[in-house]
Amino acid sequence: MLLGWREWVSLPALGVGSIKAKIDTGARSSALHAFDLELDQRKGKTFARFRIHPLQSGPGPAIKARAEVAEFRKVKSSSGHATLRPVILTQLEVSGTRWPIELTLANRDEMGFRLLLGRQALRGQAVVDPSRSFVAGRPPQQGKASGKELSPDERLRGGRASG
Fold first, then answer.
1. Chain-centre distance for alpha carbon 34
2. What is the DSSP letter of 12?
3. 160 pLDDT more than 50
4. How far apart are CA 69 and CA 33, in angstroms?
5. In angstroms, rounded to a whole number, what is the distance separating the alpha carbons of residues 9 and 12?
6. What are the residue ranges of helices labelled H in 19-140?
7. pTM score above 0.85
8. Four-way CATH pick for 2-128: 2.30.130.10, 2.170.8.10, 2.40.70.10, 1.10.3210.10
């Protein structure tokens, strides 16, 4: 698969229908902007609960997500600052093709993209043409964002509240 330096992708297991990702072959790992991050233990496993703003600009709807933490990893930012981040395993979807990836959860408020895809996530799946953008196409039209936060149950019901 051919990708440009930025692409629209999905994280279906996290309820993210479309998010603009920066494709960065200079970065080893991938990072997702996660906020209100809480960790809890259940049956000997660690889980992360967090919220995601898939839109780069404007408040837009926040998505509540929960995932098992695979490990904690020391990650060095481009500025050289190292932090210990939770790592989750999830599915990435690009142009109808899905594959498993690791994502570190981090506050990317100051970054231009909510999702950074590093070379480990792309290995064996895609090649990158840094002179192009959105080679994989545009995201599906999902209507206007309501600004309402969707729970995992509401996402399963197509955004409708129960009752």
1. 8
2. G
3. no
4. 15
5. 9
6. 119-122
7. no
8. 2.40.70.10
